[in-house]
Amino acid sequence: ARLNCSIPGEFPFYFNEIQHVYKHPDDEKKFYAVFSTSTNGLMGSAICSYSLDSIQEVFNGKF
């Protein structure tokens, strides 16, 4: 499974290198990750949020 942090569209722009992960102590169901682009392309960064329930659902499915 892969965490997807991208800008959708006809030609999606992917942030594929995780720099940091943060989980707020008051929020048991989400976490946030800071991503950047690879050094060989356009430079950029993004913060994406993820639901722990969605991630658990992926791991409960077929691989």
From TrEMBL:
Alphabetical list of InterPro entries matching this protein: Semap_dom (IPR001627), Semap_dom_sf (IPR036352), Semaphorin (IPR027231), WD40/YVTN_repeat-like_dom_sf (IPR015943)
GO annotation, cellular component aspect: plasma membrane
GO annotation (BP), single: axon guidance
Gene Ontology MF terms in the entry: chemorepellent activity; semaphorin receptor binding
A Pfam family the protein falls into: Sema
PROSITE patterns per the UniProt record, alphabetical: SEMA
Stretches assigned to the Sema domain: 1-63
Protein name from the UniProt record: Sema domain-containing protein
